[in-house]
Amino acid sequence: MDKLREVFSTVGRQVQQRPVAVLLLAVLLIFGAFGGAAQITSVTGDAAFVADNPTFDAFTESFDRGSIAVLVRGDISEPQTLHAIDRVDRQMSTKANVQTVTSPADQVRQEYGRIPDSEAKIRSVIGSPDYTVVQIVFDTGLSQQDERPIYTQAVEATDWAEFPAGTTVTVTGSAAFSAQLSTLIQQSTQQLLGLAIGLMVVALFFLFRGVRLRLLPIVAVFVGVIYTFGAIGYAGVPNSTMTSAVFPILIGLGIDYSVQFHERYEEELENHPPREALPQALGGIGPPVFVAMLAAALGFGATWVSTSSPSIIWFAQTSIFGVLLTFVAGILVLLPLLTLWVRRRDDSTGETPTEDDAPTTAETTQSQGDSDRVGLVGELLGRSARTLASHPVLVLSIALLIALVGFQAGGSLDTLADTEGFIPQDLPAYTDLQQFRSVAGGGSSTSYDVLVTGTNLKHPTTLQWMLDFEHIATQAPLVQGVDSPATLIKQHNGGQIPQTESGVKRVLETIPERQKLQYYNDGRAHIMVYSARDMTTQQALSFLENTRESIAYSSPPPGVTADITGTAAIATPSIVEQINSRNVTTGLGVLFVFVLLLLYYRNLVKAVAPLIPMVFVIGWQNIYMYLLNIPVSPLGASLGAMTVGIGAEYTIIVMDRYYQEKQQAGVSRLDAVQTAATRVGKAISVSGMTTVFGFSALVLSPFPILSGFGFLTVGVVFLTLIASLATLPPTLVLLDSISERVTAIRSSRV
């Protein structure tokens, strides 16, 4: 501990001696961060919840083709309308990464060699529908970034095609949804960032009184956020719905670090000349804030290691980068600016404090200065802490009882696992998709994929197994149909499966290549299983289990393996697993932070004491969620570990100050508790409230999952502050008393 204090004191001396050089380093890092930020990509939708999986990778390589659907409503048989459809068809057929385009124009051209100007001729081929779909299918293996330009080209093609008045054209599909959602994520990230900074300004202006340059922490935190953008760009961490929540969180956490640095520096200036104040301040507050920052990083780390969901992993990785870099920015930006300001102030007033006269001045004004510094809030916090610490058993028993009620309530909380519930319901791409489903009678979300691998996939025995699987699966609840290579071959062979493999191959030769590629490609086969529409999360899980059981019960031939896969089949179980593992995630968070504190303090009491209030909060937050009807989302499932990591900052700082005060001669445990709460209680209250302001920006997010998380985090930070100031003092007094008794007993036995 002493070595770490010396390290931070040394850093403080270097900043004090070379503030301009430190600021130049900070500026150079900003320019470097811009290069990384330019490399950030976005991943949206179910793809953000699908981890690496060999079966899924094989399916993606062979069969997973994104698509765009151009929904055309109006008199389709009217020649001008069909000519426009034909122009879209031909235009998109020439685009890179487009495999096929299908539309009614294909049928009419096949019949007449062109699009006739006779409505009667057109109707004789396609009838007189009032809507149709132009289906644009991509090549396999495209990323979302590769697909988005195709969506833009499709929109441009529909504008260029000049559909007649009265015809409605809607471009929808996976690429359309991904493109609009990606744009909204970028806009939301910028808006939340700006809103959080604005709220921080308000919070610091009204709450961080009594210090000079009280808005300066905002500058440091903003620089830390820029560093974070650069870091995730260089590390290849993409932006997603979840990661866009990180930046308001970072502003709230980063403000904590800078406020603590700022507050302690102001305190040391009361008793030391500027040359000594900064090393003294950073040596005193640096280690506990550093440990608190590592605790927050470990809280996010527990989320990282406890899930396989990519979007949650990206959230955790971005958060870890963020807490590290906002801490660094507090040292590289805040402290040198404060140093320069103090120098400029002293130069402008003509004062040159010396080591001899600074303490004397401090001694004559210390009493008044202390009163001014801590203010009424600090005095009240100190007295309250002393009162609560005087009755440790009663206070902790009440806190534990409430926590136990919360743990019991945790089992009855609702969950939010449907990815469509994560996004704004008024997003144009989503409303277009819903419109397409209602008009066209479906969409890709109603089908699931089965990848078939192995040998002899075109053998009659394998095809007969596919028919058996279809018969068994369609008897199960929620399964509405199966489309397989056997279905395709029967359609082109008079309803029969050929008796020999050579006969099967002859039938396949009569089928158009683009149609055949939907079922056979790269030595693999593809089966589609159709589900009921608009299934609940539990129904989707039941459907997947029914399909797996049908595969097993139908007994694939030797050498043949069938697995249900695809984004829809993997994303939902992954999200549910993340939600169900929230207790494991929380437990890992507690364990990680406990090990950190034990390694740092090498004292069991000091490792346990900061965690006890956080355990209370984990239970209390369930009551808060239950009363406000906040469901557990995959992001909310990580909150327990986050609570431990974030809240540990407050408890560590209070505890560290408690032991500093207790080392002074003639200071009792209650005196130390009162002084600690008085001197740092106001600082952590200010930093906690500014954190609340930062987190509250999430409440205004257009994404329901983020706004719900915002309500949750705001409440949890309040609870964390209450626990730190109300339950930590009695915890310290009780554990310290027990520790001293144990030490005394051991000493008496020696």
Automatic annotation (TrEMBL):
GO terms for cellular component: plasma membrane. It comes from Haloferax massiliensis. Its main location: membrane. Keywords: Cell membrane, Membrane, Transmembrane, Transmembrane helix. It comes from the Archaea. This is Putative membrane protein YdgH. Residues 348-371 are annotated as: Disordered. PANTHER family: MEMBRANE PROTEIN MJ1562-RELATED, MEMBRANE PROTEIN YDFJ. The chain crosses the membrane at residues 20-40, 192-208, 215-235, 241-259, 280-300, 312-335, 393-411, 584-601, 608-627, 639-659, 680-703, 709-735. NCBIfam families: 2A067. It is a multi-pass membrane protein. The keyword Nucleotide-binding does not apply. It is found in: Cell membrane. Residues 213-340, 642-734 form the SSD domain. InterPro entries: MMPL_dom, Mycobact_MmpL, SSD.
